[in-house]
Amino acid sequence: MTICFLNIRQRFIGFSFLTLMLGLQSGLVYADNNSADVLIVGAGLSGLSSAYYLKKAGKTVVILEMSPHVGGRIRTASYPDNAQAEIGLEEFWESNPALEILHELNVPLETSYTSFSSFYYQSKLYPFTHKSNLEFLQSVISDDEMDAYKKWDKKMTELYKQLEIRPLAGNLLALKEISFADWIHETSGLSVKTQEFVRIETEPEYATSWQQISALDGIAEWHFFSGKGQSPYHVVGGNQRAAQAIADFVGNDNIGLNQLVTHIKSTDTGVEITTTDMGTFQQQVYRAKYAITTVPLFRLNDIQFNPPLSSDRKEAIRTQLGGAYFTAHVLVDNKARHYWTAKGESLLPILSDGPLGVIYEGKSEANKDAVLNLLVTGIHAERFNARANGLEDDQKALLEAFEKQWPGFGSSVKQMTFYRYHPRAIASWPVGRSRFDSLSDSLRLPQGRIYFAGDFTEDTHSNGASTSAIRVVDDVLKQKQ
């Protein structure tokens, strides 16, 4: 069996450290395209969406991206025989504003499942072969348990609507001081089995234990599952096509790749951003009227701000713990499909509630090797991302988990390819914090001419990336008016 490993983070630590610590400013080159209305740091979904809205409004933009590609976590890996699988496992929920952009750009979309998924509980598989979320859940729990669930779900819907009223009521804001798990245990009236169902279905969304996030944010997360639930969409041919379509609209000439942002200076009249080209290590300076940062919060600690970030923004960054995730693409013999199908119908995605995480199916040709896509989260992702063990040990752990779940499956595995991420790669708010508290509000307000966007400022999903782009662009356009 072949083991492949790709490290998502760039190996720029040494030079970046010198630049950050010493504030090197020699050998600066002023970039040709330094007269943009807005500079955008990061070419992920939030950065690209911000550029899209600004261009539609007639404004000029330059995007500065540290990696050699656009899209951030929206990446699609290709394998022999036209097989492919998503690296970041990005999904576009039906409420995601990004869908409107993709429709406008004629990007083809597809969906084949709803918010609930097949799952394992106490080693038993509960297969989703039903027409709706509620019909599936009815096959899992009793009628009495279902009645209690419907009452609880209705309450959750009502609470979610209250989250739209600002400022939040005191009784709601107080829910950030208790974990989602403890709040469910104490107040939901749900049976133990139904509570476990809620846990198993939601934990992959915030990529950590439900003991680690606040009840307030648990309410916000549940709206994807409430009622009939929302459907997640993917791009036909791979999600990477979405990022490239937006980049083509913005203009690839307006996107600087391999540009590590090291300094952001804001004055009364404009902003100045210094980058280091990761190919030549040449510093360049870009200037504009406004700047939008869309990078994850932990990346803001790698940038020297002048003036420095305010104390509340620093505290928001320091105290917002992130969820962990890790992905593995598992190439298996085509004959192994019977492990995840029933009567010719795929049961994927399956929530394993263990080291295998969520098991998705990649795209592959008929009668060719299949690709399984594992989205591992929480403590299991932290283990695989820690690099405490060799790749063979990680492979062994996954194979053992497969064998426990599907005896005999291991012999069909031909190759594993691993993708590791920063330990704070997913936005999540620990008990005592919330996306609705004053610290989070500070990140949604500009500091001078610098605006902060990205899913870390809103929620744990690509919805947050798109919503934040709308927010900052609206603010920038109001300033210019």
**Percent range for β-strand residues:** 15-25%
**Helix share bin:** 25-40%
Number of DSSP-assigned strands: 26
**N-C termini distance:** 61 Å
CATH class of one domain: Alpha Beta
Helix run count: 16
Q: What is the annotated CATH architecture of one domain?
A: 3-Layer(bba) Sandwich
What composes the largest sheet? 9 strands, mixed
User: pLDDT under 50 segments (min length 5)?
Assistant: 8-27
Say what the CATH topology of one domain is.
FAD/NAD(P)-binding domain
Mean pLDDT across the residues is 92
* The CATH homology group name of one domain: FAD/NAD(P)-binding domain
| Alpha carbon gyration radius | 23 Å
> Helix- and strand-based class?
alpha/beta
Please tell me what the overall shape is: globular
